[in-house]
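Entry 14. Ran structure prediction on the chain below.
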Amino acid sequence: MVRPLVDEDGLQRLEEMKFESLRPDFIEQVMQLRRKVLSHVPVKKINGCAMDGSTWISLLLLFT
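Output, structure tokens:
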């Protein structure tokens, strides 16, 4: 992957940067990686039911 910024000072403050201010090549590579991961990761299921965000939270609350 290309570096998100050319400026070394900006790299030191990367967590403060807006995503849109990063290099377009980097943004495109991140989006490609995201698409690849999401298209190859199977949906998690419990007892045949797909897990969405609220189901995950409910499950976590059972163990706390």
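The beta strands are 45-46, 49-50. Will compare against last week's run tomorrow.
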